Amino acid sequence: MRAKTFLSHRIQPSKLLKPRYPAFAPTLVAMALVVSAVGYLVVRYSHAATLVGDLNSDGIVNVYDLSILLSHWGTNNATADLNGDKIVNTSDLSILLSHWKQTSTSSAPTPTPAPPIGSAPTSPPVSWCEDGNFPGDQGAPSSAPAGAVTVPAGNNGSMDLASANTTYWFAPGTHTGVSVQPNNNDTYLGAPGAILDGGGSINNAFSANYQAPYYTGVTIEYLTIQNYHPDGSGAVVNVNGGPGWTVKYDSIKNNVPGAAMMDGNNMVIQNNCLTKNGQYAINGYSYDDATNTPSIASAVTGGPYNITVTNNELSNNNTCNWDSAPSFPIAIPSGCSGITRGCGCAGGAKFWQNQNVTIKNNYVHDNYGDPGLWPDTGNDGFTIENNYISGNWGEGIMYEVSYNALIENNTFVKNGIGAGPTNAGFPTGAIYLSESGGDSRVPTAGNISSITISGNVFTDNWDGVVLWENSDRFCGGNHVYDQPDENCTLVDPGLLPLDNSTTCVTKLESSSTNQPSDNPDYFDLCRWKTQNVQVSNNAFNFTAANIGASCTTGTDCGENAIFSNYGSGASGVPYVGAIVPINITFNQNNVFKNNTYNGAWRFFVWAQSNLDNPISWSQWTHAVTDKCSTSGEQSGGACNSGFGQDAGSTIH
């Protein structure tokens, strides 16, 4: 669920100061006239590649710009407020003078090089889906392997394609009528040019059983699978999420309204082109869950585990516009009619209750209406590295109500440009963590107990890294917005079973069992927390002009963020007022450090309704003082008093 703009704290109008000149203004103007003629005054200041200080846009910083700045002295005029601290004062004057006599053709100082960033991709991979370079075209077997059953082109609806331990080789040409539930160790190979076509009516090509007997060891390679009609939240390949499948070198495209494939335990998804499908490329869900007998689901998350997603292209999915994105850029296929929109269930790939998942070396781009990669609800132990993630309508990665992840050495370019302008008042990050953090009580295969965001390169996304925790979201439901979370936290499955939220609702609504001092501590156990997040050694590059005219401070573009909302305290639930905003911002070990920033970055902090948002670099990095805990800050709804972030970082 992507949080939308809402304000849960009373807002008082900003107090605007009347324009006034500083006492030294006449002397300064006279001095500026001399400097204009002599041109020798230099104030050292690190600045971006745009012509900072050219307030009248005449291509030179001179006395006319100085006059404009002085005319707004003491106000919050956006044009003259060069450092973004919401007051025009000596700091802005120093910035303007540092660019004195520069022109639009002046060369800007070379930014300090970014810190080492590991192996993040420096350019997008060659597109398999768009440029005809799909590796399956080169490696497909041109003749049937020894012992294989040959499947001729044409209507194959009457053929038996599910004998155990059998290899089926699909001859060149178009195959229709193919809809099969594979048996154990079945292999399906395509010759060059072999196409399975669903004709817009067949639901799926390859399905799995969602309960015992589970058929495993299925391999699907070198096939183009297109024009199927999978149900919403269903898929064309591995519908139901069978275990032990391998899907490689396949092109799965133009299937609506559902997804290209689902995942299952120990599944390998490698070197595929997954494009232009109605809902997702990958629906990371298995219909086998902890309620089945016998169950093969993860004992920790209740879903599939040990999944590898490598070297795939996931592009232009969600053609059905499941979440009703405005100004949708393509014509919606006719096969999408009749779907129920607004479900928060689309994009490049989405995962529910997955454990120990590796997503590596993929090209995730231009997916419509939602995030590129979206682990949502009860996931644990994701490694997301060395991917090129670009042009997705929503966030590049959204990690929601989940635990423990490594997000390292990825490249993010121009993500969130579609969603950002529609949601002013709430930053749209290239990476967005929503009620997700590190917790050692939730086990992973790699002993991951934090969320580490490191070695990534961010360039001209709507925003950078956004850490958010909804005060009113917890195991048992969201009382304010009537959005129940039926799954529970994973921190104590003995006390709080995965599929039982009744305990938390009961305990949190009683003052005798909902305090941090209680044992058990339901105040802690029933919350998904954005905690133990480290954002370090990343390069954040931002030029508003590269994003477009809608990218402004007023639309919350060009920001990193740590914040929450004021809790409602509905039904006696104890997460009331500023408790969660203070905790996520100051008390839950969320740390930005050792990053490099290029551009006019700002920062969104503490409470969504904070009247001082966005704050400046100096406020973001200033030592923590009162943790926004004074009565004046909380009653007035404004806080900019030092957040202690980005130690060891630089901004240019």
Would you mind describing this structure in some detail?
The chain is an alpha/beta fold. It has a domain at 487-525. It is built from eleven helices and 40 strands. The strands form five sheets. The protein has a 14-stranded parallel β-sheet, with no helix packed on it. A 13-stranded parallel β-sheet has the order 1-3-5-8-11-14-17-20-23-26-29-32-37. Strands 7-10-13-16-19-22 form a six-stranded parallel β-sheet, with no helix packed on it. A hairpin with a 7-residue loop joins strand 35 (567-568) and strand 36 (576-577). The longest helix has 14 residues, at 25-38.
Distinctive features:
652 residues, alpha/beta, 11 helices, 12% helix
Instruction: Give the overall pLDDT as a whole number.
Output: 87
C-alpha Rg, in Å?
A: 27 Å
Outline: globular
Structural class by sheet pairing and helices: alpha/beta
Q: Biggest β-sheet, characterized?
A: 14 strands, parallel
Oligomeric category: single chain
pLDDT < 50 stretches: 4-50, 105-116
The overall strand count is: 40
Strand content: 15-25%
Q: Going across the biggest sheet, name each strand in turn.
A: 2-4-6-9-12-15-18-21-24-27-30-33-38-40
Number of helices: 11
Instruction: State the distance separating the first and last CA atoms.
Output: 35 Å
How helix-rich are the residues, as a percent range? Answer: 10-25%
